[in-house]
User: What shape does this take?
Amino acid sequence: MVLLAAAVVILMGVAGYYLFQPIPVEMQKPIVGGFAPEFSLIGLKGGTVRLSDVKGKVVLLNFWASWCAPCRDEMPGFQNVFLAYYDKGFRVIAVAMNDPGPLPLVKELGIDFPVTWANEQVHRDYGYIVHLPVSFLIGKDGRIVKKVFGAYSETDLRSDVELALK
Assistant: This one.
């Protein structure tokens, strides 16, 4: 009986180990190289923002919140790169997660790119993002070029955008 109980405990431990392993970042959906899921979101300043509205452009899709310090810190860099590469086909869409009042910060920072509120679909399609910020750089063909978990520096973004625009 003791051997049977020990065998059950060992099997449960092995099964638990394999069942509850976190999925490596590069394997989490949507994956780098895969198509970015379409979305339709309500903009902070009204109107609807869709990924298809910027088809053929390089797009930074950033998930953030005004209460997230690294999110606030990266926004001015996003604005700088947005302005520098807008005429070359670069766009930014920021998606506010669990944030009822991002508009004052958007105004304070002078953000010109679209800022939206997340909905359940975008939350699900982009991997149930829990830790912020998370950014997806999307190429002109609609495929995800890069995923960044944590702050995306202006220097890295500028370099990545230049490569994606070629």
